[in-house]
Design brief:
The chain is α+β, with helices and mostly antiparallel strands and 302 residues long. It has eleven helices and six strands. The two termini are 69 Å apart.
Length: 302
């Protein structure tokens, strides 16, 4: 039975909480009081279509939550949960959230469910009758349940539904295991192929690391050559080359040291810097000559 209904930001309703007791409950009111709005909100948790037009505040979510107590395995509802692999409890909290973009999400006991499951669940929980409408007669499962009850076979039918749900669940598990086995086989084949490739390559110790370094050098050859060219230009070319400047600085330091013996160590250090920079410039030049774009070699190494 439905024992509580909470509605927020739906149509004319800001926040509304209703508690239902056992037996007959009658909601009365004049035209326009909102009786049909309450039924509309209840229909949402039963899987009816929703859109953003129902939002009282277009910038906020609408939330409808209904709480049910289920006496035993009524209408085979436990089998419905088992078939969809949703946790079952004899107290159900069904919640529907409608977002400002018109989309919605459904939850049963805080577990996300799809709309198809919510519709199936709704038909077993509540039957809403309106003028010229009788949902139970349109439900193909309902006459079967009536016939089972009339023949006194409801327990047997419930057991069949339970076993059928178990078969569906086990079938899904078998399918998942087969997929996992296929994936494992594919991974094994791929790893075996890689192993055979490595065996055929007959790499010596450390050769793989060397090939990886060479491949990295080939892949970034253009970028490396550009950087080396810029380094060479900074050191030896351009409007103000570093080597020219440091050479002049060393010459001036030597002149100062000739007249000021205490400055001699500065001149020595300046000369060391000049020699070091000259060597660095040569290394940049040699590296620039050695680094080449070689697509053919890259294809072999990779």
């Amino acid at each position: 039975m439905l024992y509580s209904l909470s509605i927020s930001n739906y149509a004319l309703i800001n926040i509304l909480d209703i508690e239902f007791s056992e037996g007959l409950t009658i909601i009365t009111g004049e035209t326009g009081a909102g009786k049909s709005i309450i039924l509309g909100a209840l229909s949402l948790v039963l899987g009816q279509k929703a859109d953003a037009a129902v939002l009282r505040d277009p910038a906020a979510n609408a939330v409808v939550e209904a709480c049910f107590r289920i006496p035993g395995n009524e209408n085979g509802i436990e089998q419905l949960f088992a078939g969809e692999q949703v946790d079952y409890s004899d107290e159900l909290i069904v919640r529907r959230v409608i977002y400002p973009n018109g989309k919605s999400r459904s939850f049963v006991n805080d577990q996300p469910v799809n709309l198809a499951f919510l519709k199936s669940l709704g038909t077993t929980l509540i039957d809403i009758h309106s003028q010229h409408e009788n949902l139970l007669l349109a439900d193909t499962d309902y006459p079967v349940r009536v016939a089972d009850a009339f023949a006194g076979q409801s327990p047997l039918a419930d057991e069949y539904r339970r076993k059928h749900a178990e078969v569906i669940s086990l079938t899904g598990q078998v399918r998942a295991l087969r997929i996992a086995c296929d994936q494992a086989k594919n991974n094994t084949d791929y790893l075996s192929f890689q192993y055979q490739e490595l065996q055929a390559a007959k790499l010596s110790a450390g050769e793989q690391e060397e090939l990886e370094q060479e491949l990295s050098l080939l892949e970034h050859a253009a970028e490396i050559r550009q950087s080396l060219f810029q380094l060479s230009s900074i050191l030896e070319e351009g409007e103000y080359p570093v080597l020219t400047g440091i050479k002049e600085a060393a010459r001036l330091s030597a002149l100062v040291a000739a007249q000021h013996p205490g400055f001699a160590h500065v001149g020595d250090r300046m000369e060391q810097v000049r020699i070091e920079l000259r060597d660095l410039a040569r290394e940049c030049g040699l590296s620039l000559q050695q680094v080449r774009d070689d697509p053919a070699r890259m294809a072999v190494v990779s």
